[in-house]
Amino acid sequence: MLSADEAADLIEAIASRQDRGAFADLFRHFVPRVKAFVMRGGTDSETAQEVAQEALIIVWRKAASFDRTRASAATWIFTIARNKRIDLLRRSGRPIDTEDWLVVYAPEEEDADKSVLAGQTYTRVKELLGGLSADQLVVIQKAFFEDKTHTVIAEELKLPLGTVKSRIRLALGRLREALERDES
Amino acid sequence: MSRHPAPEELLLDYAAGALPEGLALAVGLHVALDPEARRTVDRLNALGGALIEREPEAGLDEDALERTLARLDKIAVEPPQAPFVPRPGFEWAPPALARYLGPNPRWRRVLGGFEEMRLAMHGDSHRVSLLRLMPGRGLPVHRHAGTEHTVVLQGGYTDSTGNFGVGDFTFGPDSEHEPIADAGEPCIALIVLEQPIVLTGPIGRWLNPLVRRDWI
User: Fold this and answer.
1) Which has the minimum average pLDDT: A94-103, B56-65, B108-117?
2) Looking at the domain that runs over A1-107, which CATH code has it been given?
């Protein structure tokens, strides 16, 4: 296992000295997990492997733009992998958005004071996930990993759309309340 | 906090990458302009990262690692991202939008005091446009056959539902509305339309065949 600090150290080692050993450690840790994430969306194993590898190549190229005070390594890699997967779906002709992952982390002066907290958010979110009920977690996991809108999730879980929305609100609300308590 | 924030479910769909391109652009601009929405998306991304860490290791292919390491010889570690420099005359366009403007963006006059710039999407059936309304001018009264999403990028407008300023996000199949630009700078907004709008004013309704054919 890699801790959040260790993973961030590895990315910084790539940025400062093109450290291939650091890249290999990140690759070993994240490629299998990102691959599993992409396969949850119904992508075949070979393509999922390609997405995961290409995401790590972007980690190599953009390592110097990584800012550990703004996001954890896992968060950053999540956004990269998500967008890689979107690119892939777009190539296959499915109407889906892509966004420049850097935009999400473009430093904004107006909330610079809050950005320091963003790096800590990850650790707290990880703890809070443990506090969600099983069905709240299922809705959130489906939303994230299966790349579906809430209407589709509602159909799959055989729940009215309103129920899915209220569970998502509950789960997000709980996360937000706990995080805001930390920040104040 | 924005007076008109995007609903949290939409921010989740955005963070999960589940939105069609035009809608993702609208939410992305709201996120760029509204610190509260950005904080929510930061948290949702952190949630995504935490969920990825919960994935079991599916088993690493050591050959794949060797092949990837071999590729790195030809791939440079890039210098840090340069700060975004807005294009002159388009200072109101956040980075996510600037990429859509193309080499020679042009406003097209639609009616008096009302201009449009269509944005090309990749395989998204929404009609995605920038609208520019001169101060005090209004859009023709219209209703929406489908959902309309709006993000204000400069200036502001007022209609029967309220007043909307920079960063505000609204959506809806609404009843008829007739937005009027506030005084000051021209109002610029991104509009993402699911269906062609239907003009309902005494003159506007004669223009509907043109709207349906995408001529205006």
Assistant:
1) A94-103
2) 1.10.1740.10
CB B129 within 8 A of CB B67: no
Give, for B140, the enclosing helix (H) or strand (E). none
CATH of A130-184 given 3.10.180.10, 3.40.30.10, 1.10.10.10, 3.30.420.40: 1.10.10.10
Domain ranges of chain A: 1-107, 130-184
Residue B155 is predicted with a pLDDT of 96
Q: Which amino acid is at B94?
A: P
The predicted model scores a pTM of: 0.82
Q: Which residues of B touch A70 (CB under 8 A)?
A: 42
Of B57, B68, B79, the CB nearest to A56: B68
**Chain A neighbors of B49, CB-CB under 8 A:** 71-78, 122, 125
* H-run or E-run covering B201: none
How far is Cα B130 from Cα B145, in angstroms, rounded to an integer? 19
